[in-house]
Amino acid sequence: MRDPPAPNPAAVRVSAPDAADACDLPSDLHLARQAVRDEAAFEMLVRRHAAGVHRLAAGMVGPGAADDVVQEVFIAVHRGLKGFRGEAAFSTWLHRIALNACHKAIRGKGPPTVSLGDAPEPAAPHNPVHAGEQADLRARLAAALQTLPADQREAVSLRELSGLDYAEIAAITGAELGTVKSRINRGRAALRAYLTGQGITP
Question: Which stretches make up the RNA polymerase sigma factor 70 region 4 type domain (predicted)?
Answer without folding.
Answer: 139-191
